[in-house]
Amino acid sequence: MTAKVRAHVFVTGKVQGVYYRQKTMETAKSHGVTGWVRNLPDGRVEAVLEGDEPGVKNVIEWCKIGPPKAQVENVETKFESHTGKFSEFTISY
Question: What CATH number does the domain containing 58 carry?
């Protein structure tokens, strides 16, 4: 059985207005990851990812690249205790 993990991610760069949230959601769902993603007022994107460790790590790696029009400068990741509180992955507004 694979360990369940939770990651709290902050992405800096040109990550708003480039479909970053939508593509993050699609990527997370394709890896069986639950949680949410949202834009922050300071121009960053924030996400909480929960699921099997390999799936969460794959989404984090994708976040470092993002969709074609994004220009990711930095991805800050903090691993936390898995809560299991999410049933799906959503875009938060």
Answer: 3.30.70.100
Mean pLDDT of the chain: 97
Q: What letter does residue 49 receive in the DSSP assignment?
A: E
Using an 8 Å Cβ cutoff, are 2 and 52 in contact? yes
Range(s) of the domain holding residue 73: 4-81
Asked if 21 is an active-site residue, the reply is yes
Position 34 pLDDT exceeds 80: yes
38 labelled catalytic: no
Instruction: Tell me which of 39, 44, 58, 74 is the catalytic residue.
Output: 39
**Which of the following is catalytic: 6, 21, 44, 58?**
21
Tell me the whole-structure pTM to 2 decimals: 0.96
Q: How many domains does the structure of the chain reveal?
A: 1
What residues have CB less than 8 Å from 38, skipping those under 6 apart?
21, 45, 46, 47, 91, 92, 93
Residue 88 lies in a domain: no
Per-residue pLDDT, 93: 87
